[in-house]
Amino acid sequence: MKKDYNQIADNLIKLLGGKSNVLKVFHCMTRLRFYVKNKKLVQENEIKKIKEVSGTNWHQDQFQVIVGNEVNAVYDALLNKGLPSDDDSISISSSNKSVFSKIVEAITGCMTPMIPALTAAGMIKVVLSLLTAFKIVETDSSTYQVISFVGDVAFYFMPFLIAANAAKVFKVNQSLALIAAGLFLHPTFTEMMSSDAPVSLFSIPIAKMFYPYSVIPVIMMVWIMSYIVKFVDKITPKMVKLILHPTLVILISAPIALIIVGPLGGIIGNWLAIAIDFLSTKLGFVIVGILGATFPFIVMTGMHHALTPIGLNAIATGGSDGLIFVSQVCSNLAQGGSSLAVGLKSKNKDMKQLATASGVSAIMGITEPALYGVTLKLKRPVVAASIAAGIGGIVGGILQVSLYIASNNILAIPSFIGEKGMSNLIYGVIMILVSFFGAFILTLILGFKDEETKDEETKEDNIEIKEEKIEKANLVEKIEILSPLSGVVKNLEDVPDSTFAEKVLGDGIAIVPSDNKVYAPTDGVVVSIMDTKHGLIFKTNQGVELLIHIGLDTVNLKGKYFKSYVENNKEVKAGDLLIEFDMEQIKNEGYNLITPVIVANINDYIKAVPMVDANENIKHSETLLTIV
Question: pTM for the whole thing?
Fold first, then answer.
């Protein structure tokens, strides 16, 4: 049955808070990426229930919806509904993001749209390797040369592809950005770099470097050009701006690019190559195994695309990569093996279908459906995949496996053919088999909690469990929990941290503090106060275990701005002062002070009932929750 992508788009728009709430939408290979005006209007849990959605993820202010291979069709349907696209030049504020986050997002924005071109180019190179390996095409024939340059176009002219994407990221006129890339690739400049004669501009020497295949110089130059454009715009009169503005931008950019940025970018690229070689030489197989094992979690941050330039640089400068793409192959094949094992073992019809399709997708290099829809969702399979990828990476590191073409999937096998001969191909295949079957077998051994369809027996079990909880709860009719802070009450689902919002640690409520003090919520014991003083675990005399976590990610402050008045195992009375914190300083550091109050052992009770509605004010020591 043909899917109705318009209906999927309508459902997404509704659950995103309506068309007016969406600032911008764009996509990568598997994810729709949204910026919204009001996060609270996004019904994330309902979006996860859409059949075509494998998972969701918040990254800073960006809401990601993983839909796998159907991303293009859903994206087109969203644009047809009138959502603003990445080309609609809507500026998204990022002042609250760290410098590192901005750098990663910029690199990702420049590299992600290139993936289809690089994939196609890599596969053409793979085909050429097969044609020569089986003696179908001779290396000295014109056929070989034609196919070779067709596969090499995307890599050789990579500066142009990056410049086109960087123009969007840094809000620079695309034509001007492409000229910046052309400065590095013009035949005359390339010929001058090849000659023995020194090259200079007004007696200022230009370093002899080559820029085909380069990544870093172009990204740096377009970023600098964005500031040059603003500067020139301020100094040029309106009457001649149409002519003078672009002329000055190029005249200022050209010497900066050729004399400073190009050589600097080349040096950074060489340093990266040296660093990769150092890591591979000194840490050997360990670093490949570590990267392979942690790659699924790097994917969750969206930072995996930021590693692509490092792998491409290694291939461009040294002819092969033994770390980035090698570890990706291990991770992707392991995700595929683990997901297919779930598909084989699962009794749930929908999960079986999803896991099988996602497993095949992961083997082909697209892991998000498997990661978000299957392995991470079921927990143990992602552990199995990480272990197997780590072992596969160690095997690849010990055997010194190298990839000569940028590839991260099962079709990478011919990409192992290169200077090291057939031995590298054999070792690469061994590495792949270890990663795939290791994850497959480990997933079957570790098992997972299947998402079974509820039948009558399941319902009876649930009734028995509920009756047992009621019997336990009847020993204490209700337990009142007082508010440990003064402030505005928020639903736990509104906390911008999935660990709290999805109630991974337990049920409860949150408070945006208006005061800088935390008080004991009832008589009980401070079981444990964190070393950084930003949170504590409290146990009431009736046995309710509470987690009070002041702010989000405030652990990074390492205790700065927090003062504790209690110690571990300290008995306290309701209303006793526990912690004091400097609200203004913490806010100035860029941290969100919303404070979750979690009933960690909620499974021992029926429910935690809020006594105050969301968005209402509460004072400390007023009743916040009733545990029944």
Answer: 0.51
